[in-house]
Specification:
This protein is an alpha+beta fold. It is built from six helices and 16 strands. About 15% of the residues lie in helices and about 20% in strands. Helix 2 packs across helix 3.
Length: about 325
């Protein structure tokens, strides 16, 4: 099927969503997504940040769709024409959605462990207002203890449901979910049960904001002061392939490896994530490839430059080969 997104045409398979078609193109053609997660079935359609304009439905039906549609759940049709950033209507709508998401979100960025790798932070930087227009009181929730490894900040939650879908599809028994309705909806457990299954830590990786954070790394360091390194170990529960965040010879935290869309490639167990914090526990593979737009790339490596080789006797200098 042929689809055009922001004046770029690409061929995709039948059943592909607009969002996944845009991801094949890459760059600015990709709409943001706060709730959709390609590796979890049932996600999408909740945050509305990925809304796009369909200027032409298909070759058979050239009429535009009457309203903006969620690109994460709308399948492409042959000859479809989609406008993302090329549509002023989409940009204004996205600004409104970001403003809506920030209505109850606290200004915790200076103390939040997710700062520097937060999807909402990036989204608000691109589409947010300088000042809020909201005059009512913010929604607030009491602190809830959901276990010894994960810290829940419900005030920061945007109800994307990712952690609920993850627990449903990755673990045998889910003990947390969405409680209540409307603006008092919250993530919680029945009678304050602890979330302690072997893969519960992956909820931290799928959370797009700082609502779920690692207790073992809480307030220890900003991520831009740490160096992410690909590492692995022999593990009987998971693949053992992780990213360790180091400062010198100290490991501050461990998380699963992610692709260029910040989605987990392989889920890891709690033993690898929370209990293996010694360098001797890991086999270091090398520096993690980081996204250029990430704050981690500032003052850090992106490409390792090979040094030139000087031959003093011959009086020549051998320049490194260009990659």
């Amino acid at each position: 099927m042929r689809v055009t997104i922001d004046n770029i045409t690409i061929e995709v398979e039948e059943g592909t969503t607009i969002l996944n078609a845009a991801r094949k193109i890459g760059g600015k053609a990709v709409p943001p997504a706060m709730c959709y997660y390609s590796k979890l079935s049932g996600t999408g359609g909740k945050c509305r940040t990925c809304l796009v304009k369909v200027a032409k439905t298909s070759d058979k039906d050239p009429r535009p769709m009457p309203k903006l549609v969620a690109s994460c759940s709308t399948q492409v049709q042959d000859g479809m024409v989609v406008q993302n950033l090329t549509s002023p209507e989409v940009v204004e709508e996205r600004k409104a959605i970001v403003e809506f998401l920030l209505i109850n979100h606290p200004l915790d960025c200076p103390v939040c462990d997710q700062a520097g790798e937060c999807d909402l932070q990036d989204l608000s930087f691109g589409y947010g207002l300088e000042e809020t227009r909201y005059e009512e009181g913010r929604r607030e929730f009491p602190m809830t203890d959901i276990g010894r490894f994960i810290k829940l900040h419900m005030n920061r939650c945007i109800l994307c449901y990712r952690c609920v879908f993850l627990a449903d599809q990755l673990t045998d028994k889910r003990v947390h979910g969405i409680l209540y309705r409307g603006d008092v909806s919250e993530i919680g457990t029945l009678i304050s049960a602890a979330v302690e299954n072997d893969f519960s830590g992956n909820m931290i990786d799928v959370c797009p904001v700082g609502a779920l954070t690692d207790r073992t790394a809480r307030f220890k360091s900003r991520i831009w002061f740490l160096k992410p390194m690909d590492a692995h170990r022999e593990c009987t529960k998971c693949s053992g392939k992780t990213v360790i965040w180091t400062y010198g010879n100290e490991i501050f935290r461990v998380n699963a490896r992610k692709d260029k869309f910040a989605e987990v490639e392989e889920y890891i167990c709690n033993e690898c994530r929370f209990e293996k914090k010694e360098m001797k526990d890991w086999i270091i593979e090398g520096p993690t490839e980081i996204r250029r737009e990430s704050v981690v790339s500032a003052n850090h490596y992106e490409h390792l430059k090979k040094p030139s080789i000087i031959h003093p006797i011959e009086g020549t200098t051998e320049q490194p080969e260009k990659e």
